[in-house]
């Protein structure tokens, strides 16, 4: 694991998670987006269990990005690196392509957080383009997620794989 990744992961682990709400979004739009993100994420970053396994999903803020937990009991707990890696793989696989250049995402895709959303890109220079026009690229990410998550089994990792 690279030193920079360890620092980021350690920061996430130390920060824990805090519940959040999306008050600035319309309820139907927010619920649709949440459902899309839950389907992409698949598992709780704390427990490693499916998001619907313990009364969840519970919307939370993890390192400035919206994530979901399986239950309120996971709020504020440390995130094991192996679960974080699975969540990241699931999210990269669900997004599939860079919203800027349309290229397939590599397994170790770079990412940027904008408007509490973690967006994966094919290369670090795409981060600046996303920061400059976040709404355009978040809409593109939503389309990519909808496209890639249409299939009943998208092959994303679950706790049992």
Textual characterization of the structure:
The protein has about 160 residues and is an alpha+beta fold. The chain has one domain (about 5-150). The chain is about 40% helix and about 15% strand. It is built from five helices and five strands, in the order H-E-H-E-E-H-E-E-H-H. It has helices at about 5-15, 25-40, 80-95, 125-130, 135-150; strands at about 20, 60, 65-70, 110-115, 115-120. The strands form two sheets. It has a three-stranded antiparallel sheet. A two-stranded antiparallel ribbon has the order 4-5. Helix 4 (about 125-130) packs across helix 5. The longest helix has 15 residues, at about 25-40. It is globular. The model is unreliable at about 5-25 (pLDDT under 50).
Could you give a quick summary of the protein structure above?
This protein has 161 residues and is α+β, with helices and mostly antiparallel strands.
Please state the overall shape, judged from the principal axes of the Cα atoms.
Answer: globular
Give a count of the beta strands, DSSP E runs of length 2 or more.
5
- Low-pLDDT windows of residues: 5-24
Distance between the termini: 21 Å
Tell me about the biggest sheet?
Answer: 3 strands, antiparallel
Give the helix/strand class.
alpha+beta
Strand order of the largest sheet: 1-2-3
Q: How many domain regions?
A: 1
Please, how many helices? Answer: 5
What is the helix/strand order? Answer: HEHEEHEEHH
What is the beta-strand fraction? Answer: 5-15%
The amount of helix comes to: 40-55%
**Compute the gyration radius: what is it?**
15 Å
Mean pLDDT: 84
């Amino acid at each position: 694991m690279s030193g920079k990744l360890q620092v980021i992961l350690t920061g996430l682990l130390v920060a824990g998670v805090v519940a959040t709400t999306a008050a600035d979004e319309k309820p139907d739009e927010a619920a649709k987006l949440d459902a899309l993100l839950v389907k992409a994420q698949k598992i709780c970053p704390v427990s490693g269990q499916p998001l619907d396994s313990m009364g969840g999903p519970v919307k939370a803020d993890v390192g400035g990005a919206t994530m979901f937990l399986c239950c309120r009991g996971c709020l504020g707990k440390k995130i094991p690196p192996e679960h974080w890696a699975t969540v990241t793989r699931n999210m990269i696989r669900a997004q599939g392509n860079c919203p800027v250049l349309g290229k397939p995402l590599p397994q170790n895709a770079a990412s940027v957080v904008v408007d509490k959303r973690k967006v994966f890109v094919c290369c670090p220079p795409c981060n600046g383009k996303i920061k400059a026009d976040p709404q355009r690229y978040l809409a593109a990410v939503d389309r990519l997620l909808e496209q890639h998550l249409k299939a009943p089994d998208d092959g994303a990792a679950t706790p049992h794989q």
